[in-house]
């Protein structure tokens, strides 16, 4: 029975230096909700726990008209969900954050934690993907900015490796007449992880859908963009049949598995329906 | 094993605990504060809810060592320590039978307290959403909602009286 | 009716409300004793295997470990008369206990388990009950000869036929079917397995003082635990004290079973108290779950809706359990004759053993599992003759005079039918009121006609009826008067949340004219309270509470006899009111406190009369107590995803007399919410090949939350009162009845919405979508 070392670095640099010492023998504690599940299941009892809670400068939500939105990795999910700034300008992200877990979990969980845990079903991932988010990471040699699409490598794995920290998420300004929606299939009305998660972003130009972005969660090893489905809609005047075709295409791009939460077949059906609906809602929001 | 200091219900507690010990374990096993109930130990039921800096948190999903330096309120700290007077939410639960087996009750009451402190005039829908992370296997959801709304009304009236 | 009482029938504050609101109740897992050890269990990964070797030496040598038990060093006894031994050399389901460790801390005990080296020889296993009934199937119990239960040396069911099926017949079904205008039949899928999910997992604490044992057990049946521990430990019951205060749930048959005796043995060997507390995962894989039935029904009806015959074939899945499930099966078989007054009913059932965790009683006790399917069949029959489903139930539901029996007679005989009492004339009233409150007339548009369609979303309404027995058993109680005129009520029944301690205090206060505040219950202690079975089968109000009422009357008689000479009045001129004994119609009185101050030996005691002493005045037949329910559900089904939203639920129940209306409503809500979860969200997944539970956690075993039940104005329950022939003041137990009509009402509402019958047990979105696409 080990009682791991518990360290509380006060800065990113300090945290990175500790990380270089311990490498894979260390685990970060951010909100802690995913880490504690791993500890309880004894999936990994690390030699060292590095608590990031002291690094308060990673807890922020900032916006300007040029650079867009920046969210610090330690920002709690509840703050993302309740931010009036996010609600008004990047509503789909606030919407998804508000659907993550239960109210108490949202008080504790962080945006960085949700992304670094890299569950294929992570609720914040599909919205961030359609918003064109970038992940700012930092290692001993400096900072990097990585498109979120490249951030996820596999179930539970990111590009961070044993020597990088996620610092913040950057989201560019949205075009005018943008709208978004996140839909999540759950096994009950109460909290659940996504059995299927769908995010859709629509940018309208008159009657034409100038841009469409679709991202899927829980139906592939990582959250993914359904680019073929997007292409069906982009630049077109949207109608019901086209939306259905788009949904079907997204369903074909998905790579779901059978597990106790749902069968692959059922998940594919849901992708088709939820993509159609999410895109419809996104367009309505963009037009309204 | 590290020695940690936890600020609970206004008092300081020194305790030795493994770094991986949860706040729930420390409260219940080391400090004998068994008012915080364990129902699932995996963050799914809300029974172990305590207030940390005023916010509902799951004590079974919080490292005790991480809870240092924060104000922790458990159910034992809710009634007035001198007069023993129950908090209005506790009173409402007592008067209207807001509990059956009582295991979810401490977590339910604390979550409701934090919620009403921020939202003194909620709708039924607001209450249901705020408590949606607290499971009641005895199915007392409707009654609990009634109790919280009743407490909210009493608390608003109580403030009016003070004004 | 209500004005004649001062305490009875009122919403008195729960006796345990304050301590529960303050978190001060010591539930069994909260118990901490000096020098207490913690026990953990090593579990078999195999469904069926023989232990060829087990080496505990490293575990025993680990610092902090105080005791290790295996099949080699515990007595060869059968806990609860089950087939299995206390620790068995052969294991019969994945997760079965193989060894026990007691250590200074739970973490040390868990680490020690990892040091126990067990070698298994896998035996042929059978997991699927439909495989298990085939003659070529591997034997789940290797020495038993078949997988169909036919009794053991320890458990006999006399009424089993030679082919091991249990049958019950009333009237002549062949004749009945020949008289029918329409015959409708259907096969349904297995009813969902439901995990009990008591708020506290199984826990027991054992401590010896000399040669006497105290056992704090989280159980609703202290009597069974007490008997069992005496038998397995080989000591007299008089030397064992089982205390079940702080028990929760139980939702059906909650007992620590072999764990209690193992903890007691470890406590004795170490000379220290031992706490054995299951984790939630262990509770999920190693305690019994709701019995599951696969049912075939056939019903014959006349054009005017009269039911002429009903036939049921029930396959019951028992898993590895060879004792408790048969009670459910007897209940279900009898229950299938008890919903309707049809004169010709035949049912047959068999119990199937497999190598999976045991199945058994859970809220409803074998009735919901048959009502869930039969009520769906009844809708099919009503549709066949184009009759409104409410009208169909009204025509056929059981009423006063309907034949009735106790489920134990179904198992043991003799078959001596009694009748239902006049309280069951509440059933039509319930159905009509339920329809009225739900707005049935306006909302029911006819068969295959949803209430509304909006894009892919369709709304439907459906109804069902239900019932469950409430048992009248031997029970005894004591009411002890204290010198200040306050009273303690002693009863072995358990307060597990339903409010038992509260209602018996109301009964005593009412009977003796005491203030409610002056009555306090002492419960669930085999060393201190007179015996009753515990709380099961919705019997609390009917059985132990009845003995409390009689004991209070005994006290009253003693008070009157002492007061009469002082008041210079005959005993029958006296009444107990407002804390005094007074002469009726005068102001001559003596305070009860003053009587008790001088006579501190006033103790009332009573036993329940035999159940068959309660006879119907008109016919002289024995009256059996049942409770009835009617539920109407409205759902919205998303026909593109299969997702069902429960929009409204209206549910009516009868309770004899409401002792405490709020508590009754709370118990009804329990049944409604639990039934909702049973058929819609609580999916228990067992691997088809290995029998291993795939979701031993609450992340993937989804209970209903606030958001999964309708909000208050759409979530209505009500009750009607017609005094039962027995039970205190005519009250009867009704909690489990609430469970019985909801599931089929939801299923019938789904059919109304989407026009496609679902024969599956579980109304999950994917099952519904599949049915819609097929249909």
Structural commentary:
- The complex is a heterotrimer of chains A (288), B (163) and C (775).
- Helix content of chain A is 35%, strand content 26%.
- Chain A is an alpha+beta fold and 288 residues long.
- In chain A, the strands form 4 sheets. A 5-stranded antiparallel β-sheet of chain A has the order 4-5-10-6-7.
- In chain A, helix 9 packs antiparallel against helix 10 (240-253) and helix 10 (240-253) crosses helix 11.
- The mean pLDDT of chain A is 95.
- Chain B has a 5-stranded mixed β-sheet with strand order 2-1-5-3-4, sandwiched between helices.
- Chain B is globular, with a radius of gyration of 16 Å.
- The relative contact order of chain B is 0.15.
- In chain B, a hairpin with a 2-residue loop joins strand 3 (49-52) and strand 4 (55-58).
- Chain B contains 5 helices and 5 strands; from the N terminus they run E-E-H-E-E-E-H-H-H-H.
- Chain B is of the alpha+beta class and 163 residues long.
- The mean pLDDT of chain B is 96.
- Chain C is α+β, with helices and mostly antiparallel strands.
- In chain C, the strands form 8 sheets. A 7-stranded mixed β-sheet of chain C has the order 3-5-1-12-9-10-11, sandwiched between helices.
- In chain C, helix 15 packs parallel to helix 16 (544-567).
- The longest helix of chain C is centred in the last third of the chain and has 24 residues, at 544-567.
- Chains in contact: A-B, A-C, B-C.
- At the B-C interface, helix 2, helix 3, helix 4 and helix 5 of B face helix 1 and helix 18 of C.
